[in-house]
Write a structure and sequence with these properties.
Helices cover 77% and strands 0% of the residues. The chain has helices spanning 5-18, 27-32, 38-57, 63-71, 75-102, 107-118, 121-127, 133-153, 156-172.
């Protein structure tokens, strides 16, 4: 396990447990999750199929039985959270490809830029662990891409997308 994985996954599970997605509104959650909650919210979304599958496996029994079943198979939370990080990593490769394309480079150069990101050891490591870095890198590159589109086209939708992505990037890691 990476050092932050327990904090990120534990914070997301605590959100589910106390039914409160905002750490500032809950001292118990604030003690567990000391990162911005954006990535933990993505983990919660990934945990829903895990919980639903476990609940179906026990025949939609009482919640107490579900909690017991989930406590015996915690690795599925790790897999789900790591899948979210991997998805952000893959999306980053796509965004870098599109950014290079919008800068006017040919297909070969765009594929090379994407390959540099895809096979970068740091990027691979961060995309394989349940931490906030892969989401942050994705959101920063997506903000750069949308900002380039603002400069090139000046469309209002691109301004909004760049602002939203930049804000989400701050919400993933400040």
């Amino acid at each position: 396990l990476a050092s932050d994985e327990e904090v990120m996954i534990g914070g997301a599970l605590r959100m589910l447990e106390i039914r409160n997605p905002f750490p500032t509104l809950s001292p118990v959650l604030a003690e567990t999750l000391y990162y911005p909650p954006l990535v933990a919210w993505a983990y919660v979304a990934a945990f829903v199929p895990v919980v639903a599958t476990q609940w179906a496996a026990i025949g939609f029994g009482p919640v107490g039985e579900l909690a017991l079943a989930l406590s015996f198979a915690p690795e599925f939370y790790w897999y789900a959270a790591r899948a979210v990080s991997t998805a952000f990593g893959v999306a980053t490769v796509y965004v870098v490809f599109r950014l290079a394309r919008d800068l006017g480079f040919g297909t070969a150069a765009c594929l090379l830029a994407a390959a540099f990101v895809a096979f970068d050891p740091t990027h691979l490591m961060m995309s394989a662990t349940a931490r906030h870095w892969s989401a942050t890198v994705f959101l920063v590159w997506a903000t750069v891409w949308m900002s380039l589109r603002v400069l090139r086209d000046g469309r209002t939708a691109d301004y909004r997308a760049a602002a939203l992505l930049g804000g989400l990037g701050f919400g993933a890691s400040y």
